[in-house]
Amino acid sequence: MKIGIGNDHVAVAYKKAISDYIREAYGYEVVNFGTDSSERFDYPLSGKAVAQAVVSSQVDKGILICGTGVGIGISANKVKGVRCVICSEPYSAKLSREHNNTNILAFGARVVGIELAKMIVDSWLTAEYEGGRHQKRLDMIEEIEDDNL
Ligand code: RB5
Prior knowledge:
Layout: E1 2-7, H1 12-26, E2 29-32, H2 43-55, E3 61-66, H3 70-77, E4 84-86, H4 90-100, E5 104-108, H5 114-126, H6 133-147
Helix pairs in contact: 1-5, 2-3, 4-5
């Protein structure tokens, strides 16, 4: 399993802590698409980079972190085929996998403490998409994408 990770200048140390956690707890490869500098870095750049890596199957899933998770998550959701959940608790992270088949998780370094973030990551990485009745709605989301190219 390969996880693409991206961040802006607000979340440099936080991104490193989450990357180390995923490597140690899961043994997954973590590919860094974010900045490692404290210089201002525009979050759409790494949101887009991780999103494109996910839809092109360069990585299996993505994780994005900025101050709130909002800007970087919105950026990722502009890429066709991305379903990015922006959340700050494990329940939505889990359900977003089971019902919405999210392929990117976003959260905020200024919002979520690092231990809670690890719980969110655990919920999201271990939950599986249930398919069935949920697929029709995901197909409808795809139709929205196709109607608005
Ligand atoms: C950067 O100041 C901040 O706007 C960014 O990290 C993020 O919170 C945007 O959504």
